[in-house]
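Researcher: Here's the sequence for the chain we discussed earlier.
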Amino acid sequence: MADFMKDSDLKDRFLNALKGKAVDMVPALSVTQTGTLELMEKSGAAWPEANFNAEKMANLALAAHKFAGLEAIRYPFCLTVLSEAMGCSINPGRYDVQPFPGSQPFAEMAETLELPSDLAERGRIPVLADVTSILRERAGEEIPLIAGIEGPASLASRLLGTYNFLTWVLRKPELLRRCLEVTGAACSEYSAVLSEAGADAVCIVDGIAGPDMLDPKHLASLIKPEYENFCRAGKGMKLIHICGNSTSILKTLSECGFNGISIEEKVTDLPAAKKLVGKKVSLIGNLSSSGVMLTGTCEEVKNKAKECLEGGIDILAPGCGIAPKTPLSNLRALVDARDEFYSN
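Model: Thanks. This is the structure I predict for it:
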């Protein structure tokens, strides 16, 4: 594995950072999507094929470690695998656009939503199990594998329709609660498939549950129980990413059992955020993916990264999914900034 590794302790460093243990330096990686146009060119694996073909997906996922130096392998590059398996039609996207759902199969019949008995065999779930196995074999045990999936709220909003989801919070909370129990169970089952295949961590991405879309009190009453169930189920590290300014819900999220919480740059006071989550949960982030990572210079990326490190971030990472047109040099600058921070 010499082709892929500079440091045989990457996995230990990642796991220790999530467990709140001492590390020689903060890990520098991404818990959100890593497919960029430059990495597609270097790996010979491009979207949309790399979102559907196991070998190409594995090649592109490995590229972020091999060419950018990110200290974990994060895959897949979209948030549609579970949605598809649960009944959504999927638009495959294009070379610079991720796949996205094209239907809301339970918008008119929410009462019939249930967990399929053959979920693990549906859609691309077997493909992602294969990708995990391929990555585990090719990367060895030294590099952490992070699998991303839709969270229970995002999955429910796709199956029911976003309008229904947001209005039923007030109009039909019991029906929505039952639907969330189903989607939460689907997340747990899919997570178990990935963990059994070799993933070290599963990161749920649940943007619609954030305060930009949902009142924090409804997160606590409707969605928190499903997060708690997800964190209790199966093995491996459990992470969550919420878009927007998640400051108002950090304490609630920290009570669910997650090992790490990924935050955007809109969470501006890192010391205060760390106090909210306490010592049992690691904070991950929070360089702007659509800002400095995409459009900034390498020096600007380094400056922002060092601000995150000075603020006490536990894992240095982009604050959201990496934009496809992000320069490879800026991904490298993220890691270089961490190295420079600890060399001074």
